[in-house]
Amino acid sequence: MLVVDGLTCRFGAKAAVDDASFEVSPGGFVGVIGRSGAGKSTLLRTINRLATPSQGRILFDGLDVTALRGKELRQWRARSAMIFQQFNLVGRLDVLTNVLMGRLATMPAWRSLLQAWPEQDKALAMSALEQFDIASLAAQRADQLSGGQQQRVAIARALVQQPDIILADEPIASLDPRNTKIVMDALLRINKHFGITVLCNLHSLDLARSYCDRLIGMAAGRVVFDGAPSALTDQVARELYDLEANEAMGGMPVPASAGVPALGTAAAA
Ligand SMILES: Nc1ncnc2c1ncn2[C@@H]1O[C@H](COP(=O)(O)OP(=O)(O)OP(=O)(O)O)[C@@H](O)[C@H]1O
Q1: ipTM of the complex
Q2: Ligand 1, closest atom to CA 41?
Q3: Cα(121) to centroid of ligand 1, in Å?
Q4: Tens-place pLDDT, residues 106-116
Q5: 41 C-alpha vs ligand 1 centroid, how far in Å?
Q6: Separation of 16 CA from ligand 1 center, angstroms?
Q7: Pocket of ligand 1 (CB under 6 A)
Q8: Which of 110, 125, 170, 253 is 20 to 30 A from 207 in CA distance terms?
Q9: Over the stretch 182-231, which tens digit does the pLDDT of each residue have?
């Protein structure tokens, strides 16, 4: 269980996240929504401790994440895998090696320096690539892939971290509608098939309503809505997005099926 309690993250005088409190039970697929600048990114980065909380606490299964330092903080970052809008792959390295990077936290330094990956980690990485229909790309340089393929590699890397929670920061912001659906289906699959909690920032309200079982709405750093997608009325959505309401509710793809996206159904776009 993730507990965010009175969390504030300031940059100078500005509170990018302002006294945010909520809990996320294991296995949830929670969308964080709100207009640009609402604090969604900072919230996720603070939970991962890429940004430093100014006040409040983050607890995960009783562990005080806010107090972690050094090795324990590195371990937390491995348990809370980030997925970024710009994929954050190492472009000159091949796909398999990029996925194996997700195993670094489990390896002694000498092994990672030599890139002497254990066979079982290689098998795990290949299996993760297979999950998302991109095993055939294992030997290709990451910078030769399309955006949708790169994001699937990033999701495979997150999966081999064997995290407790995935923090996805606008994972589809750079993608076209077809790849948006493929990547959101991949996240849904991780959530439903592997039971990994997903906390996902999304600009598009339609997309958030389609994929998430709960929405947290932010405005000016504060949590202003927390509930089921069905509870988010058009009136609340308009308030949340202000003049962006129509744009936010524009037509977006729906999940592959009502349940878990089938294994290996995403085309290697
Ligand atoms: N490193 C930083 N230094 C100073 N101000 C920052 C920093 N990061 C974020 N901010 C400010 O904090 C506020 C919230 O930003 P944040 O990126 O968290 O919002 P967001 O909801 O994720 O927006 P977007 O959807 O555009 O990414 C913004 O006003 C932003 O300018």
Answers
A1: 0.96
A2: 22
A3: 36
A4: 887 777 777 78
A5: 7
A6: 6
A7: 11, 14, 16, 34, 36-42
A8: 125
A9: 999 999 999 999 999 999 999 889 999 999 999 999 999 999 999 999 99
Rounded to the nearest angstrom, the distance between the alpha carbon of 126 and the centre of ligand 1 is: 36
Q: Which residues pair with 4 in a beta bridge?
A: 22, 58
| pTM of this structure | 0.88
